[in-house]
Amino acid sequence: MAPPPSMPxxxxxxxxxxxxxxxSSLRLRRAPSADAGDLAGDSSVGLRENGExxxxxxxxxxxxxxxxxxxxxxxxxxxxxxxxxxxxxSDAIFRQSHAGLLNLCIVVLIAVxxxxxxxxxxxxxxxxxxxFWFSARSLGxxxxxxxxxxxxxxPLVALMAEKLIxxxxxxxxxVILLHIIITTSAIVYPxxxxxxxxxxxxxxxxxxxxxxxxxxxxxxYAHTNYDIRVLSKSTEKGAAYGxxxxxxxxxxxxxxxxxxxxxxxxxxxxxTYPQTTCIRKGWVTQQLIKCVVFTGLMGFIIExxxxxxxxxxxxxxxxxxxxxxxxxxxxxxxxxxVWLCMFYCFFHLWLNIVAELLxxxxxxxxxxxxxxxxxxxxxxxxxxxxxxxK
Length: 390
Hints:
By secondary structure, the chain is mainly α. It has 3 domains: 63 residues, no CATH class; 130 residues; 109 residues, no CATH class. It is built from 16 helices and no strands. The N terminus is likely disordered. Pathway: Lipid metabolism. It is found in: Endoplasmic reticulum membrane.
């Protein structure tokens, strides 16, 4: 006698060549997806009282999930279903997430550096001196202050040279010679003033830092304007550059464009820059607080770690060679921390603050240089290649 329509035959569920008694055990050994299909198949067949086909009745999703768990965690369910590699094997290690190991390394790094900080404080005490950074002598460094205030004269002279060549009052060779004199004077003048005056470390560093930035900006300013003149002459002669030449970046230099370029966080001059629409004052305040904190941390590392090691070190040619190597290796860790703090404060915090205040749009001041394999890649990822190419 055939089974009723709502109860499929055991041989149909078990497959050909198997009896009804084996079907339940086989179903328990299947994967959850296969079990779901069997359960759905058992409830999808039936007829109404009037003889019409009955629509499939699937159990609720919560009930299906409970059935899957009951079948999947049975003792007879297979635990090994496919070929798999160990997570740390050479074939699978790069396909795994190492966030846990990274967190462990951070914890170990914090623990080790905390021990070194406590050990240093117990040995030397608090060594931070305000006189190393700021002193009465710094306020009396009026020659350096006057030199810093007179640095904007060089960009103004460069603008005058560009105006003269635009009006065709001087030749191309004359303006090139003027730019060479201007850029050379912009870097030599602060060096002479710094050497002549016995100033504090911070005053001399700030002056030379600003002078170096201005020198690089003046070099880019001269090169870009020269190239604009060459492109303009080529365009007038009928040369076609297609979409490579932007009319907005072919304008003559103006006082407004020069001032914006000297203040903008970039070393590459162009007449116009992409800009944002507003200034986020709250965001600027947060970045300023971070900049102050990391600058203080950098000063703490220099005063508390680097200075004592340098003072207690002998001359490398007069002492033991192994002792010199030990001192260099001891300096490597705090020097690395100072370098990282300096990078974060300047390239990320300070440049973003200036860009936000000036609505400067292109804020990709650096790329992932920490993934670089060579020094050349580091230079490119720090966005120095753009200036060198110009």
